[in-house]
Amino acid sequence: GGNKPSPRLTVGDFVLATFPLIMDDAALMARFANVWSAASKKLGKKATKQQLNASFRECVMQFYPLTRMDPHKLPKDTDTADTKVDDERKKVIDTFFKKKKTNEALEGGSDFRYTPFRIDEMMTPALLGGK
Using CA atoms, how far apart are residues 11 and 77, in angstroms rounded to an integer? Predict the structure, then answer.
């Protein structure tokens, strides 16, 4: 009840706009497949569409910091057979997901933001073209 928005997927969803970036990156796509598989199994076969949508959105949110990370910290996926770059990328991604998800991790000096955030909360009227 109340005025809480329903967790449905919409075309203008800022979080879900991250999904194509995940799918364009082989290493992130492989990791996402694992994260989504675990999340959907946790929900079970009797999950409602709303529960699946909310869970999918949460999974995508976890990857937002990786899709926006400085290329010096996470080299870009070059679609080449450069195993050195691939190994470096895998190490950074693995480290990101191994970090403890605590408030302590949000303190300064961190390479990652450990708790997913709602990107749509970050959108202010100024960012949306207003004043």
Answer: 26
Tell me how far apart the alpha carbons of residues 113 and 106 are, in angstroms, rounded to a whole number.
6
| Tens of pLDDT, residues 20-77 | 999 988 889 999 999 999 998 998 889 898 999 899 999 999 998 888 888 888 887 7
Are 114 and 100 in contact, with CB atoms under 8 Å apart?
A: yes
Find tokens 């937002």 and name the residue. 64
Q: Which residue in 13, 30, 14 sits closest to 22, CA to CA?
A: 30
User: For the whole model, what pTM was predicted?
Assistant: 0.63
CB 94 within 8 A of CB 48: no
Q: At what angle do helices 49-67 and 83-98 cross, to 10 degrees?
A: 120
